[in-house]
């Protein structure tokens, strides 16, 4: 009887050891590169994107992403990221700063984030207290509140949020549906094509 109990105990211990070993093999803690969300890779320590989608999900990370990046998604807080070239940058955390040369789309939610990217096809500011600086943007949409967006050249701009400040040297078109916004531009469109908000302050060319 004692032999049987001893055999059972040994079997249980061995099963537990195998289970623990299996869990350890899937751990990504401490690794600078690991595969997440299908083809996306986790680069919390920076590195070469090599055309891949990238996710940064460690609070306080400071990353430099080299090469051609796919979609760079920042899910953590307090991140500092330098992204040279990418198809898209998505910021979902807060207190994050992104610097870059060129991206297809820049989408920022969360709070107190900032981005300085020279050339962007489309900027979508959904968060609050966000600051965006750039040289050229094909399209700008501001739906959050308390944001500041400053670019040199902009195509179509839509401001549907409230209490935002938007500044452009050149602006092709403007749709304004929010309230208490300030929009300032030097050339291009002379009046908004849509202006259904209230208490907005406009400084168009020649004003």
UniProtKB/TrEMBL annotation:
A Pfam family the protein falls into: DUF3060
Keywords from the UniProt entry: Signal
Compositionally biased spans, kind Polar residues: 179-201
Range of residues in the leader sequence: 1-21
Spans annotated as Disordered: 179-207
Name of protein: DUF3060 domain-containing protein
Organism, as annotated: Rhodococcus opacus (Nocardia opaca)
